[in-house]
Design goal:
- The protein is α/β, with parallel strands linked by helices.
- It has one domain.
- The chain contains nine helices and ten strands.
- The strands form two sheets. An eight-stranded mixed β-sheet has the order 2-3-4-1-7-8-9-10, sandwiched between helices.
- Helix 7 runs antiparallel to helix 8 and helix 8 packs across helix 9.
- It is globular and about 40 Å long.
Length: 284
C-alpha cells in the first residue's frame, strides 16, 4: 500500500477514536514501557528570557503500536521509530506536514536531537514575533516525553537552542507548552514531583484521550494554565493545535482559543459542534 493510502486511513482511525477504540483503559490493556528510557536525574535548568518574542514548545509522542496502549493502527503509520510516516508527524494531518503547509509558519531549522527526540523542527511565524519548536519523540519513550512535558510546565526543566544568532528558550522557558499523542498516563503511573519551581504560570494544551482526568493532578502541581484539554477519546491531529495557537498568538481569551480548537476539530472529524464542545474544554 502506498504512503498516500496509509495517510488516508487517518479518516478511518478518527472514526475509531470517536467510537472509543483508539485508546484502551488501564484495566483493558497494560503496556510495558522502557523504564531505562524514562529514568533521569535532576532536570536540566538553563533559564533564559527574551521578551522580544514568544516561544511555543510542542511535545509529540509518535504513535506506536508496539510500545503504547492503543488498538493497533496500520503498521506504517504506527511505527514510533519512523517519524516520516507516523500518524502524528509525517502524515497529512501530522504536526510536521500540517505546519509546513500552513501559510502562517515558515520552517527555519530541522535537526535530530537524540535517540529519543528523533526530529526537532523550528518554525517562525510569518507576521508575529513567535517561534514554534516541535519535537518528534520516539513512541517507545512516551513516559519520558510525558515527564519532560510536565517538568517543563512546572519550570523544573529549562533549556535553550540556537537559530542563526538567536537564542530560543525551550521547555520551561517557553510560554506555551503542548502535548500531542496517546495519553500514556492511562498505562503507567508517575511518582515524580512536578511542583512549580519558579512561581511562573505557563499555558498548556494537552491533546490526548481523557487528558483532563489523567493530567489534572500534575497540572495543578505545576500551576500551569490549561487552555485546552479533553474529557473523552479523541484524535490528536495537528489542526486543533494549529488553530488554537492562532488564537493564542492573537492574545484572545481562553474561551476564544478553545472555540477555535472546537471548530477545527469538528471541521475534520465531522462530529458536530456540541460533541466537539463537550470534548475540548478549557480551565479547571
Amino acid at each position: 500500500m502506498s504512503y498516500i493510502s496509509y495517510c488516508k486511513i487517518v479518516v478511518s482511525i478518527a472514526v475509531l477514536c470517536l467510537l472509543g477504540f483508539a485508546c484502551t483503559s488501564p484495566s483493558q490493556q497494560q503496556v510495558s514501557t522502557d523504564k531505562a528510557l524514562a529514568k533521569q536525574g535532576k532536570p536540566k535548568n538553563i533559564a533564559y528570557t527574551d521578551t522580544s518574542f514568544k516561544v511555543i514548545h510542542v511535545f509529540v509522542a509518535l504513535c506506536d503500536n508496539k510500545y503504547q496502549g492503543i488498538v493497533p493502527v496500520p503498521p506504517k503509520i504506527g511505527n514510533g521509530q519512523d517519524p516520516d510516516n507516523n500518524l502524528y508527524w509525517g502524515c497529512d494531518n501530522g504536526v510536521r506536514t500540517y505546519f509546513k503547509k500552513s501559510k502562517d509558519w515558515q520552517l527555519v531549522k530541522t535537526q535530530k536531537v537524540s535517540r529519543m527526540i528523533l526530529e526537532r523542527l523550528v518554525f517562525k511565524h510569518r507576521t508575529k514575533k513567535v517561534y514554534l519548536v516541535a519535537d518528534a519523540w520516539d513512541g517507545q519513550s512516551i513516559e519520558k516525553t510525558t515527564t519532560d512535558f510536565l517538568y517543563s510546565n512546572s519550570g523544573q526543566l529549562k533549556d535553550t537552542i540556537h537559530y542563526n544568532k538567536q537564542i530560543i528558550g525551550i521547555d520551561g522557558n517557553a510560554q506555551l507548552l503542548a502535548y500531542i499523542g496517546h495519553d500514556g498516563l492511562m498505562d503507567f503511573q508517575l511518582s515524580n514531583s512536578f511542583k512549580n519551581a519558579d512561581g511562573k504560570t505557563r499555558d498548556c494544551i494537552i491533546l490526548a484521550c481523557i487528558s483532563k482526568k489523567y493530567f489534572t493532578g500534575f497540572v495543578d502541581q505545576a500551576k500551569a494554565n490549561p487552555l485546552i484539554w479533553t474529557t473523552g477519546l479523541m484524535c490528536p491531529e495537528a489542526y486543533t493545535l494549529h488553530d488554537a495557537i492562532t488564537g493564542y498568538i492573537n492574545q484572545e481569551t481562553n474561551e476564544s482559543i478553545r472555540n477555535r480548537g472546537v471548530l477545527a476539530y469538528n471541521k475534520y472529524q465531522k462530529c458536530g459542534i456540541k460533541a466537539a464542545q463537550g470534548l475540548l474544554v478549557s480551565g479547571r
